[in-house]
Amino acid sequence: MPRLSYIYFPDPYENPVTKERSVVYRPYILVRLCNGHKISRGLVNCLLDSGSDRNLFPAGWGESVDINIKKGKELSILGIGGIEIKAYRHKVKLYVSDYNFESEVDFSYSQNKPLLGRDGFFNRFDEIIFNQNKKLVLLSY
Amino acid sequence: MSKDVLDLLFKYQNKWVAFKKDLSGILFSASSVKDIEVKLKKLRIKDALVTFVNPADKSFSPLCRG
User: Fold this and answer.
1) Could you tell me which residues come within 8 angstroms of residue B33 by beta carbon, excluding any fewer than 6 positions away?
2) Best mutation site among B36, B38, B46, B64 for testing chain A: the one with the most A CBs within 10 Å?
3) Would you list which residues of chain B are within 8 Å, Cβ to Cβ, of chain A?
4) What is the predicted ipTM?
5) Does the CA dihedral A9-A47-B57-A64 come out positive or negative?
6) Which DSSP string corresponds to A117-138?
């Protein structure tokens, strides 16, 4: 069974009380987005989010591979605090290293951080292991 | 990751950043991932690591229920 591993990636963090600066490590996966023959040039850090039902990407990423965002099915996404955002659903192909698969992504103009959810990402793998101590994610497919 | 690059992460909060593939430095930043892709294409760069740098003064709890 092929296996991919990704080291957690740091984001800046400032303690709100002491103002001390450090980093917080989060489980990101490097993904390329593909629409037909158009594939993104960058390897984009996407947050592996087991709490997300589906994939949610910024609309601009979809536009960069010529996806006509507003032609997708319009829907509402519910987030933390009960906030709803508008998104548009599209079929895409996702590349994770040498592994690629058909998927669906909801694209939103209100979302910056790409999120990888259970339906459309997690379910494309046989096993996903978060090793918090080693700050490592293992994906088997 | 070097201290210099960590300092840059704080500098580029709430922005999209393209890193050199070996994470030794930042190539450029932009306000959108679309702008990053346009610039990567213009510079003929493949395989840059692209990330949105979260604001440092807030915890992050995404939830997507669609």
Assistant:
1) A42, A44, A58, A60, A61, A64, B16, B50, B52
2) B64
3) 1, 6, 9-10, 13-14, 16, 18, 32-38, 40-41, 45-54, 56-57, 60-66
4) 0.91
5) positive
6) -TBTTGGGSSEEEEETTTTEEE
Tokens of A102: 């058909």
pTM passes above 0.90:
yes
Beta bridge mates, A9: A26
Q: What is the pLDDT of residues A4-57, one digit of tens each?
A: 999 999 999 988 889 888 889 999 999 999 999 999 999 999 999 999 999 999
Contacts 24+ apart (CB under 8 A), A132-138: A135/A7, A135/A8, A135/A25, A136/A5, A136/A6, A136/A7, A136/A8, A137/A5, A137/A6, A137/A8, A137/A27, A137/A29, A137/A48, A138/A3, A138/A4, A138/A5
A117 interaction partners in chain B (CB closer than 8 Å): 64, 66
Element (H, E) at B20: none
Query: In chain A, where does DSSP find H-type helix?
Result: 59-64
Give φ, ψ of A95 to 5 degrees: -110, 125
Strands A115-116 and A43-48, bridge-based pairing: parallel
Express each pLDDT in A99-116 by its tens digit.
Answer: 999 999 999 999 999 999
Residue with tokens 């997507």: B64
Cα(B17)–Cα(B62) distance, integer angstroms: 20
